[in-house]
Design brief:
114 residues, mainly beta, Jelly Rolls, nine-stranded antiparallel β-sheet, 0% helix, globular, RmlC-like_jellyroll, RmlC_Cupin_sf, UGlyAH_Cupin_dom, Cupin domain-containing protein
Length: 114
Amino acid sequence: MVMALRVEIANAEAEAGAPPPERIISGDPRFTTWNIEDNGRGLYAGVWEATPGKWVISYEEWEYFRVISGLSIVTEEGGEPVRYGPGDAGIIRPGFRGTWEVVETTRKDYVISI
């Protein structure tokens, strides 16, 4: 049994996606996700990349992320914009409502717990 796993997206299948059209505020954002870990009990980890655009986000899950490259701005409803660039980390808690804006194509690693 392997207790530690080196995260390598070269060994993961890339999944293409995008925000639902009704949530897009600007641009034509496209996602690529490499889901490295899925424990079958609501825990996911991997790498996500998005091209420029802005869309509405609504979280029911908990997420920790760290930006690897690019620039994004996350703004909670009624809150101040928070910029995330390479090396910056963040936590988004269940119940979060706001927007995600990718200014420069952004790649992040993530851990999500449902």
